TrEMBL record:
Keywords: Membrane, Transmembrane, Transmembrane helix. This is S-layer-like domain-containing protein. The keyword Membrane applies. The chain crosses the membrane at residues 351-370.
Amino acid sequence: MIARNTVLLTILCLIFLSSSTAIGTSIDFNVSEIENDDSIYWTVSPQRSDNFNFGDNFYTTYGGPDLKAHILGNNEFSSGDIYNLNINLANKGTITGFEIENEADDDLDIKLQAIEKGYETERTTAIGITSVLLSPHSFIDVKSGPQESGTLRSGEQTQSSPKFIVDIDDDAPAGTYFLVLRTVYGYQENVQVSGDELTAEGNIKDVEIGMWYEARSQNHTIPLIIKKEANFEVVNVTSDLRSGEGGVLKVTYRNTGNLPAKDATAKISVYTPFSTTDDQAFLGTLEAGDTAQGVFSLNVDETTISKNHSINSEIRYEDTESKTQLSDTMKISVQTLPAISLKDKILGNTWILVILVILMVASAGMVIYMKLIRKENKIRP
C-alpha cells in the first residue's frame, strides 16, 4: 500500500510541475531528500532552462513551507469500527534568511531589488496541497485516496480539513500506532525581476518578473490510539426451538478485550418468527478472557419452517471508570426445527413410555383381579 501511494505522489509531483509556471520547453528533474526531527522532505526540481538567467538575481532566499499535521478531536478509537479521520494542516513555514547575490548599483536596481524581496517572501506559501494517509499496520486499513487542501500561506491552517476513512479490525490489539500522512505541494523556489529603465515619474519601464517553482513532499507522523476496553464475541449457541412451541436459547459469550466488564447483561432482539418476554440475561462480571452463558426463553410461530435465523445480541456493562457501555452488535445463528408429532413425543420420552407400561400392566392386573373376584363369588354357596 505504501509503495503504491509513493508512486502516486511522485506522479502528482510531476503533474504539478508540468502545470506550474516555468521557463523553457524541456524539463529534467533532480530529486533531493532532507530530513529533520519532524518530517522528511522530498524536493523535485526541474533543471532551469538556459534562457532563465539568474545572473541578475538580487537575492537567494532560505526557508520555505513547513506543514504540521494532527488529528482533529480525540485520537482514541475502538477496535472493530470504521471512522472518519479529520486531519488539520497548518503551515508554519518561515524565511530563515536572505543572501544578497548582486548589489544595487543605481536607482533602477534599488527599485528592482525591493520588488524582488517582496516576492521572495512568498516562498513560504504551500501551493496545491494534496495529502495521502498511509498505514503500515495490517489491522488498520485506510479506505480513502488522495485529498486536496488548497493553498496555505505561512500562519494559515486548513479551513476544510482532509478527511480519511479508516477501518480498524475487530481483533486489532490495543496500543498506540503511527500512521503516515504524506503531503505534496508546490512552492516558489526563486524570483528574478528585471526592467529597462526608470521613467521621469520614477516608475520602472517594462518590468518582467520570473518565478521558479518546485514540488516538495513531507511525511507527517499521525499517532492513533486503539483503546483498551472490554470486547465480546459469541463462542457457543445451543437451542431446541420448534415450530409452534416454546424453547430455550443458551448463548455463551467471551470477553475478548483486555479490560473487565462489570455487571454485564446480555440482551437479544427478536423478530418474526420469534417472540419473547425474557430477552435479557445477567452475566455478572467478566474479566478479560472470561466466558458466561446467557439463557433466554423464546416462543416460535407455528407457521415457521425449518431454517437458520439470525438474532442480534448486545451486552451492556460498566467499564473500569464505572461508565455504562454498550458492546457492538453480535449475530447469533439459530435453527428452527419442525414440530414433533404426539407419537414421536411419546416414543422419544422414556418416562412417558415407562408410565404407559406401568398403566398398561396395572390395567391388565386390575382386569385379572376383577375376574378372579367374580369367579370366587360364583363358587361360594
